[in-house]
TrEMBL record:
<dbReference type="Pfam" id="PF07810">
    <property type="entry name" value="TMC"/>
</dbReference>
<feature type="transmembrane region" description="Helical">
    <location>
        <begin position="656"/>
        <end position="681"/>
    </location>
</feature>
<feature type="compositionally biased region" description="Acidic residues">
    <location>
        <begin position="14"/>
        <end position="29"/>
    </location>
</feature>
<dbReference type="GO" id="GO:0005886">
    <property type="term" value="C:plasma membrane"/>
</dbReference>
<dbReference type="InterPro" id="IPR012496">
    <property type="entry name" value="TMC_dom"/>
</dbReference>
<keyword id="KW-1133">Transmembrane helix</keyword>
<feature type="domain" description="TMC">
    <location>
        <begin position="548"/>
        <end position="654"/>
    </location>
</feature>
<feature type="transmembrane region" description="Helical">
    <location>
        <begin position="557"/>
        <end position="582"/>
    </location>
</feature>
<feature type="transmembrane region" description="Helical">
    <location>
        <begin position="224"/>
        <end position="242"/>
    </location>
</feature>
<feature type="transmembrane region" description="Helical">
    <location>
        <begin position="439"/>
        <end position="461"/>
    </location>
</feature>
<feature type="region of interest" description="Disordered">
    <location>
        <begin position="1"/>
        <end position="31"/>
    </location>
</feature>
<dbReference type="GO" id="GO:0008381">
    <property type="term" value="F:mechanosensitive monoatomic ion channel activity"/>
</dbReference>
<protein>
    <recommendedName>
        <fullName>Transmembrane channel-like protein</fullName>
    </recommendedName>
</protein>
<feature type="transmembrane region" description="Helical">
    <location>
        <begin position="349"/>
        <end position="369"/>
    </location>
</feature>
<keyword id="KW-0472">Membrane</keyword>
<feature type="transmembrane region" description="Helical">
    <location>
        <begin position="514"/>
        <end position="537"/>
    </location>
</feature>
<feature type="transmembrane region" description="Helical">
    <location>
        <begin position="731"/>
        <end position="748"/>
    </location>
</feature>
Length: 811
């Protein structure tokens, strides 16, 4: 028959405590955070003061740990150390496991805050408090656990302190507590004053008319602020559409639409000063037409000529006069003389300075966007292990609607897929032979791609020379569409060839694959635009001496933009819709094509570069770009939802927006700025049209204005000095550039220093963790030796009666 387990009843001796036996509360931060050694002493004393303890004595063995000395900590089923109850209590009472992590600690922490807040305002009298707020012995249950009693006591104290606050302070305090909504709602209900008291206060007229009016105004302003905030959120363009795209297709596809939205903002910022200071002013004071204005036929929407030539669309329409009243420009090219006493508006000066200011604002905005994007993507000290944060901290508990819950669920799921795919891509090592084979394949593919780019460049150059040798009359303007047609065909066909060649490379990382495709397409488009810029400023200016070559360049850029939009529509229809239908009907495939991020992003950068190149010759070109981007967003969104699928290999586009803005800034904006600076400083304007028709260069408009200011009088004499020493002199430009480079260098050094400090702090945190583990193990060994000595004393106390019984039986 099995024997029942024997239990030994141990009564622990309570050591004398000269300082008092009451232990400090673990919720008191000032007591807990003093030192780890003091915490061990307090918890050891607390364990020694406990009451009765039952220990199970296994038959056939001695006391716990009677054999052996100083053994290591026992291991659990998964290799984790198994500590005693006293050690676990110490671990549970550590500051890192109490403050901010348990419900009782949170309640205690906010109770302390409400006490401080109430002491500032003054304690309310006891007779003004309700019965539920007064202390009562019924709140205490002596049979409950001490931790539960302490938590309930803290909760009751918190409720009483909340009742002593005003309604606004109470709501603000409850709103900031890191508790669940149910717990906050319960605390709010318990801390409300009784209804009878509130009714008595109203009857006694405690709230005056001024107080009621003030409360009503505060409440109305609060509601108005909430309504305006929700309205501003609703006015954000494509807010819900972007959330749907990010949740369904991931951050890689979402980065394209975010970049499109950024381009829309840049064009709006560029268009506003042009409309205010150039287009609007010239439309208010239109010049007299030099000849008959052709009628609108509809072909101008494609060619950009005809009726548009005699409108504010192009450079040639703007006069070189000071605008104060309608004035016909003389045929000999002289300027109109302003009437005496009128306020003149110098159109050449306004044209030049407005374009310069608009480009300067765009440059500052681009640099700020790029630096901000770099700061968000490459944070100092940011860790790559964000899986736990995504799993446990991504859900928004304020979401209540079903469609929003589904959208957030899809978004988090896609983020987890991207994180796991990025983590798996780092775990694939390659052998030496595999690396050599990969380098050979990459070299061959790059040679083929560069050869294709060279062939496209030669084709564009040859066709542009043929267009110069065969001039086109005004009646055959449709022939001028041939050069934009050839350029767009090459820009559309070459990326497909690059995509076929990229299939041979088999990149492990989808991010690297996208970056390589962007680099190849960027080389193709930038070289093509370089050939076209040489064609316009190097060849066309010489062949169009007696004509308005600025209008021709503006029309060429307009035709390129229109043809680019048409080919993007065809690519969307043929490359996505028709291919999906063909694969589903003929090839019997269920998979849809993926969204080409590299090609579509480069199309956006290419179109924006055309806009910046042509803004000098066509001030309304940013408006055309805005219309194009709006149509393109809805077209791409509809095609994406209907014809495309999520990437087969999910990947996280954490740095993609930064790369897009960087490419937009350096090759695109910088190249356009160099092109326009060359046109303003070096190329002679046309003598028959435009605001600079009587000058050798466009830049001379500033010099003419300075000479007029010098003759105007001493009141404006500082303006010529500013122009001479800050604009014409190159030393301030070099000085500002040197200061900018110095600031950038210092910023880089500061970032490097911060990274080193962060690495040292991480190492220190790791060492602190090892120190804690060492102290815990030491504490565990001390406790085990104490248990062994206690068990030995117990056996010694029980051994003499047994020996005496045996001796008596022997006699």
């Amino acid at each position: 028959m099995s024997q029942s387990p024997a239990f030994v009843l141990n009564v622990l001796e309570t050591p004398e405590d000269p300082e008092g036996s009451q232990e400090p509360s673990p919720y008191d931060e000032s007591e807990v955070h003093d030192s780890f050694h003091q915490l061990i002493q307090e918890q050891s004393r607390w364990v020694a003061e406990e009451g009765l303890e039952l220990q199970q004595r296994q038959p056939g063995t001695g006391a716990l740990g009677a054999s052996g000395s100083d053994h290591e900590t026992l291991l659990g089923p998964e290799g984790a150390p198994v500590y005693s109850m006293a050690t676990l209590r110490i671990l549970a009472s550590m500051p890192s496991r109490t403050i901010g992590r348990s419900r009782g600690a949170i309640i205690s922490q906010y109770y302390s805050r409400t006490v401080k807040l109430r002491r500032r305002a003054g304690r309310p009298q006891l007779r003004d408090m309700g019965r539920s707020a007064r202390p009562s012995l019924r709140l205490y249950d002596l049979e409950l656990d001490s931790a539960v009693l302490e938590e309930e006591e803290k909760r009751g104290l918190l409720v009483k302190e909340l009742q002593g606050l005003t309604a606004a302070q109470r709501d603000h305090m409850l709103r900031g507590m890191p508790l669940s909504l149910a717990e906050k709602r319960s605390l709010r209900e318990e801390s409300r004053p009784p209804r009878g008291k509130r009714g008595a206060q109203r009857r006694r007229g405690l709230l005056s008319c001024c107080d009621q009016l003030r409360d009503s105004c505060v409440l109305a302003s609060h509601n108005l602020g909430l309504a305006l905030l929700s309205g501003l959120q609703a006015l954000m363009p494509w807010r819900y559409a972007l959330k749907r795209i990010g949740g369904r297709f991931g951050s890689s596809v979402l980065s394209y639409f975010l970049f499109l939205k950024t381009l829309l903002a840049f064009n709006a910022l560029l268009l506003l000063p042009l409309l205010a200071f150039i287009v609007g002013v010239q439309a208010a004071f239109p010049p007299a037409p030099a000849g008959p204005v052709p009628t609108f036929t509809g072909l101008e929407l494609l060619t950009g000529g005809g009726y548009f030539t005699h409108s504010v669309m192009y450079y040639g329409y703007y006069s070189n006069a000071t605008l104060n009243q309608p004035c016909a420009s003389p045929l000999n090219g002289s300027q109109c003389a302003p009437e005496a006493g009128s306020l003149p508006y110098n159109m050449p000066l306004a044209y030049l300075f407005t374009l310069g200011a608009a480009f300067f604002i765009t440059c500052i905005t681009l640099v700020y966007s790029m630096s901000r994007s770099f700061g968000e993507s490459y944070r100092v000290g940011s860790t790559s292990g964000v899986h736990a944060i995504t799993v446990f901290c991504s859900w928004d508990y304020k979401v209540t609607q079903r469609w929003a819950i589904r959208l957030q669920h899809d978004n988090i799921r896609t983020q987890l897929k991207e994180l796991l795919a990025e983590w798996q891509s780092r775990q694939r090592p390659r052998s030496a032979c595999g690396r050599l084979q990969r380098v050979a394949v990459l070299g061959l593919v790059w040679l083929l791609c560069l050869g294709t780019t060279l062939g496209c460049t030669l084709a564009v150059y040859t066709f542009s020379e043929l267009m110069i040798e065969s001039p086109v009359s005004a009646e055959r303007e449709a022939v001028l569409l041939l050069l934009p047609l050839v350029v767009c065909l090459l820009n559309l066909g070459a990326p497909y060839l690059f995509r076929i060649l990229a299939a041979l490379e088999r990149h492990d990382s989808p991010v690297l694959e996208v970056y390589v495709a962007i680099c190849r397409n960027l080389i193709l488009k930038m070289v093509t635009l370089g050939i076209l810029c040489y064609h316009w400023l190097g060849r066309r200016v010489g062949t169009l001496k007696d004509q308005c070559w600025e209008n021709f360049v503006g029309q060429e850029l307009y035709r390129l933009m229109v043809m680019d939009f048409i080919f993007m529509l065809l690519d969307t229809l043929l490359g996505e819709l028709v291919w999906r239908l063909f694969s589903e009907k003929q090839l019997k495939r269920k998979g849809k094509p993926e969204f080409d991020i590299a090609g579509n992003v480069l199309e956006l950068i290419y179109g924006q570069t055309l806009t910046w190149l042509g803004v000098l010759f066509s001030p309304l070109l940013p408006a055309m770009q805005i219309i194009k981007l709006l149509l393109l967003f809805y077209l791409k969104k509809a095609s994406l939802m209907a014809n495309c699928q999520a990437p087969r290999r999910p990947w996280k586009a954490s740095h993609m927006s930064t790369v897009f803005v960087s490419l937009l800034c350096f090759p695109s904006f910088l190249g356009a700025a160099v092109f326009l600076c060359y046109a303003v400083w070096q190329v002679k304007p046309s003598s028959t049209c435009g605001p600079f028709r009587t000058l050798d260069t466009m830049y001379e408009a500033g010099k003419v204005w300075v000479r007029r200011l010098e003759k105007a009088g001493p009141r404006v004499s500082w303006l010529p000095w500013v122009h001479r020493y800050l604009v014409e002199d190159t030393f301030p430009i070099y000085l500002v550039s040197a200061l900018l480079l110095a600031v950038i260098y210092l910023n880089i050094q500061v970032v490097k220093g911060q990274r080193k400090v962060i690495c040292l702090l991480k190492e220190q945190i790791s060492n602190e963790g090892e120190d804690k583990i060492f102290l815990i193990n030491k504490l565990q060994r001390v406790y085990e030796r104490k248990e062994r000595s206690r068990a030995g004393r117990t056996e010694e106390a029980m051994t003499p009666p047994a020996l005496f019984t045996d001796d008596w039986g022997a006699q």
